[in-house]
Structure formats: structure tokens, C-alpha cells
């Protein structure tokens, strides 16, 4: 029983840390968008004479 509880606690802690990291990156991205006034769905890659979103 103790082994299962330890595994469950570790899984919960991992999920919590992952969620906190995701929330942190989302908040940081939102702040950068607010400061720059632009929104991008991804990097712009220069191909030939035009820009293509990839």
C-alpha cells in the first residue's frame, strides 16, 4: 500500500509541476504579446521572396 501511495504522490507532484510550468510560460507569452502588441501563431520562415508561416 505504501508503494502505491508514493507512486501516486509522485505522479501528482509531477502533474502539478508540469501545470505550473505551462501556466508560467503562458503568462510570460501573454506579457510579451501585450508589450509588443503583436500576436504570432509561430515562427516566420523566410523562403525565397516571401514569408511563410510554418
Walk me through what this model shows:
With about 55 residues, the protein is of the alpha+beta class. The chain has one domain (about 1-54). It has one helix and two strands; from the N terminus they run αββ. It has one helix at about 1-35; strands at about 45, 50-54. A two-stranded antiparallel sheet has the order 1-2. Strand 1 and strand 2 (about 50-54) form a beta hairpin. The protein starts with a helix and ends with a strand.
Structural key phrases:
single chain; about 55 residues; alpha+beta; elongated
> What is the string of SSEs from the N terminus onward?
HEE
Helix content: 55-70%
Strand segment count = 2
**If you average the pLDDT, what whole number results?**
80
Rounded to an integer in angstroms, the radius of gyration calculated over CA atoms is 20 Å
* Amount of beta strand: 5-15%
Distance between the termini: 49 Å
What is the 3D form?
elongated
Count of spatially separate domains: 1
- Could you list the spans in which at least 5 consecutive residues all have pLDDT below 50? none
Please give a quick description of this structure.
This protein is an alpha+beta fold.
Which helices and strands appear, and what pairs or packs with what?
Layout: H1 2-36, E1 44-47, E2 50-53
Antiparallel strand pairs: 1-2
Amino acid at each position: 500500500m505504501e508503494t502505491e501511495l508514493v507512486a501516486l504522490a509522485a505522479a501528482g507532484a509531477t502533474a502539478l509541476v508540469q501545470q505550473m510550468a505551462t501556466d508560467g510560460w503562458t503568462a510570460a507569452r501573454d506579457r510579451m504579446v501585450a508589450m509588443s502588441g503583436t500576436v504570432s501563431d509561430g515562427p516566420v520562415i523566410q523562403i525565397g521572396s516571401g514569408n511563410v508561416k510554418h
